[in-house]
């Protein structure tokens, strides 16, 4: 099939390569001209701008938007729409809030343009292993685009999970679960690292756990890779970003009155990782000193 990919970052660029390997014809565009040049080649044609993207596509056009969530996605779609026609399909594969996807679907529907939200998981490994695709949109749009999803995903790695918004909703919860899993591994390895009774080799333990253990997983395979390279992770600062989905998952859990303590605490742990010095911890130390005369460490 022919389609366009807008956004050639770590995810979008590798997705273009995988699609081209699957025999699809790609029109590519990115705000960085160098990124466009780097990806142009066999089966991949460069576009000068969004108007040129639409011009090179044969109706029924399919445009996959793979740019940061929020304003960049809105801006890209707004600039693209004047060049599209009734029946064309816009796919948002970024980590958008599902409520934004509902709004975008309604806006595009008024112009007769189909919208699909595709939660995409796989990271930098997707090029070789494939991407897990959580797809929201109409059944007809899904069927029309299914050859694209088959090329991107491993066997059984894609599904039409519901109407517009459902794809990003499922991806939101997926990432919330990821937060909790990452935090559990982090805490376990930190306890091992802090042991005063044993000098433990974390890379060895991670490798061990990946063979028959109930905590084996792809995430722990990645832990094995990282810890085998450097048991102390000396070159890495313990600063952890969040891209939004964890927050949205916690907000949705609160809205639905669903207890989600693990995901919530894993999100808060990320906030703590960004503090050079915790003022809250200072308050606790000061109060313990005031009521109990406990020693405090001074700067």
Summarize the topology.
Elements lengths: L1 E5 L3 H12 L3 E5 L3 H7 L4 E3 L3 H7 L5 E4 L5 H10 L8 E4 L5 H12 L4 E8 L4 H4 L2 E5 L2 H14 L5 E5 L3 H29 L7 H8 L8 H12 L15 H11 L5 H13 L5 H14 L7
Parallel strand pairs: 1-2, 1-4, 2-3, 4-5, 5-6, 7-8
Antiparallel strand pairs: 6-7
Helix pairs in contact: 8-11, 8-12, 9-10
Which descriptors would you attach to this protein?
single chain, 299 residues, alpha/beta, 8-stranded mixed sheet
Task: Summarize the structure in words.
Strand 5, helix 5 (about 100-110) and strand 6 (about 115-120) form a beta-alpha-beta unit. Helix 8 (about 165-195) packs across helix 12 (about 260-275) and helix 9 runs antiparallel to helix 10 (about 220-230). Helices cover about 50% and strands about 15% of the residues. It is an alpha/beta fold and about 300 residues long. The chain has helices at about 10-20, 35-40, 50-55, 70-80, 100-110, 125-130, 140-150, 165-195, 200-210, 220-230, 245-255, 260-275, 280-290; strands spanning about 1-5, 25-30, 45, 60-65, 90, 115-120, 130-135, 160. The longest helix is centred in the middle third of the chain and has 29 residues, at about 165-195. It has 13 helices and eight strands. It has an eight-stranded mixed β-sheet with strand order 3-2-1-4-5-6-7-8, sandwiched between helices.
